[in-house]
Structure formats: C-alpha cells, structure tokens
Amino acid sequence: MMGSWLRVCVIRRSSRSCRCRRWSNFEVERAWLMTVANRKTVSGFLHVSWRTAGAVARRVAERVKASMSSPFDGLTAVGVDGTGYRKGHAYLTVVVDHERHRVIWAHDGVGGDVFDLFFKALTPEQRASIKVVAGDGARWIDSCVGRWCPNAERVLDGFHIVSWMTGALDKVRKRLWNQARRDGDENATKRMRGAKHAVLKNPGDLTDWQFATLDGIRNTDPKGQIYRAWQFKELLRTLLKHPVEQARGELNHWVFRASHSRIPEIVELAKKIRRRRPDILRTIQLGYSNARLEASDNRIKATIRMAHGFHHVTNLIALIMLRCGGPDIRLPQPRT
Q: CA-to-CA distance for 118 and 247, rounded, in angstroms?
C-alpha cells in the first residue's frame, strides 16, 4: 500500500516538472519569436493572446539577465536619450553602450532624477571606467555627468546639433509663411508652398521638384531670410565633418555671422552654439556620436508600436531589452 502511494507521488511530481519544463521552453520560444517577428505573427503562430506577451517577456528577460554577466562591466562610452511612448505623453530614458552597440539600461521617465538611478546602479569602479557620455544638450545630462562621472568627457552628437539648426530654420519658414499670408502676398506664398521638405532635407536627398522649390525661395522675402537660414544650416552641418582644427575656425566664423544675421531665430541659436562650443569641438575631436543610439531608438520605437496593448511599462522595457539588449536567446532544442 505504501509502495503504491509512493509511486503515485513520484509520477505526479515528474509530470508536474515536465509541465514546468515544457512551459519554460514555451516561454523562451515565445520570447525568441517576439524578437524577430511582429505581434500578429507571434499571436497567430503560437495561438496565445498578445495581452499575455508582456508578462512572458518580463519573466524571460529576468531569467536571461540573471544568467548573463553584468552589462555595466567594461563601460567606456555610453549614450543617453529619451524616447516617447503612449503617443508621446510618457517617456523612457534609454542608455546605450557605444562600444558593444546595445541597450544596457532603460527606465520609465526622463530627467536628472531618472538618470541618477542609472549611475546608482553602477559600482564606483564601473562609474570610473566611463570616459565619454554622449547625448543631446539637456542640462540634466550635464549635471548628472558632473556629479557622478566628473572625469568623463561630455559630447554632443552631431544629429542633435543639426536638429537645433533645422528647428530654427523651420521657425523662420513658418514666420515668413504666416507673414506672407497676412499680407496677402500670393507670389510669396506660392513660392514657399512645399518649401518645408526642400529646406530641411540634405541637398543630396532632394528631388528635382524640391531643388526647383529651393531655388525659387532665394528672393521670397526682401532680405532673403529663409534662404540665408538654409545656408547657415548647411554650413553648420558640413563643418561637423571637418578636422577639429579646421572646424574650430569655421565654427567661430559661423557664430560671428549668425550673431549678425538679423534673423531673430538664428541670432538666438547662435547664443546656444556659442555656449556649447567646447562640447561641439570635443564631439568633433573624439568622433563619438549618438548615431548608434538613434539607430537603437528607431528599433525601440518599432518595439513600442509592436507592444501596443501592454498594460505595464516594465513589460515594455523587458521587450526592449530582449530586442535591443543583445541577450543570447536560443530556441529550445528537442531532447532525444
């Protein structure tokens, strides 16, 4: 009688462990498929509701993280940026390892308090190994780097420097467009129609029609403000690619000309460029940029669109780490 009872217990326990192992393999299979396919393919192939995918991603990400070495070891150059989710009403702070090309940390929110959490997760030795921190011109990045990594070089990536200029250029275009419409200048409004893409895109990417539009706005307003603003944008974009000694003189010349351009938006931008001139020159000298972070940001945005339906931001962050953090997820192998 006792032997029969023991056999029943052993059978139940073995069947329960088999079910746990099969469920674990299923979760790994689900997580791997989520890294290479969209949610419609994942749900249709595995016949599991997409709403449950977030919890699966979180559990697998936790197990993978526990089995891997710390992503904070050997850091030398990192990039930080914020990306929006939930239609831009909420933000994530993302940190990328420039050398290993992967996301190493992400957290809900943006600002100095959130970025402090990243440095608090590091040991003093790991913080001391960081030599370069790349990002946009946000002051909270400067303050956090100065507080936690005083010996690290703070660089501004060229993408954001040019975006400052394109933002100012677009403000000039909007002001002149609204002014021409108020004044009833039909010729000016006709020439400026479609000018947005012509002035904001790089010259090498312009179509023939956009080239004609750009040529037509030379004399749109009496002072040619929009065309001169476009020239300032191109000068700033090209000097970032020059050697640092050459770029230093060109940047000084650019700031002088922009300060005396009598275009309000460009004059205001010249003050910002003058204030961040040491960081810009350091960016050119070191050659670091946030191009890798921007590439990761595009993949993160695709992941956010894919993760529509997740109820918790922790599940979204787990999926981001699975797709962009470089974990070694392998499909379960059948046992012979």
A: 34
Q: Return the bridge partners of 133, or none.
A: 78, 154
Give the pLDDT confidence of 131-185 residue by residue, as tens digits.
Answer: 999 888 888 999 999 999 999 988 887 778 888 998 998 898 888 888 888 888 7
Q: Where are the alpha helices (DSSP H) in the chain?
A: 2-36, 39-46, 53-67, 112-120, 124-128, 139-148, 158-183, 186-192, 195-200, 208-216, 225-239, 244-259, 264-275, 277-286, 291-306, 313-324
- The residue to which tokens 């640092």 are assigned: 244
End-to-end Cα, the chain, rounded Å: 35
Structure tokens at 185: 């200048």
Q: What is the pTM of this model?
A: 0.73
Distance CA 199, CA 217 (A): 10
State both tokens at 130: 């960081």
- Per mean pLDDT, which range of 6-10, 131-135, 198-202, 231-235 is the poorest? 6-10
**CB count in 10 Å sphere of residue 299:** 13
**CA geometry: angle 215, 218, 221, nearest 5 deg:** 140
Residues in the chain: 336
Integer CA distances (angstroms), 271 to 32, 105, 257, in order: 49, 34, 12
Helix, strand, or coil (residue 124): helix
- Are 261 and 228 spatial neighbours (Cβ–Cβ below 8 Å)? yes
Collapsed DSSP state (helix, strand, coil) of residue 236: helix
Q: Based on C-alpha coordinates, what's the Rg of the chain?
A: 27
Please give the Cα distance from 40 to 94 (Å, whole number): 26
Residue-wise pLDDT for 33-46, tens only, equals 777 666 667 767 76
H helix runs in 218-329, sequence order: 225-239, 244-259, 264-275, 277-286, 291-306, 313-324
Identify the CA nearest to 108 among candidates 129, 84, 72.
84
Two structure tokens written together for 210: 């956009």
In this structure, the number of other CB atoms found within 10 A of the CB of residue 289 comes to 21
The phi, psi pair for 149, rounded to 5°, reads -130, 70
Q: Tell me the C-alpha distance between 336 and 322, whole Å.
A: 29
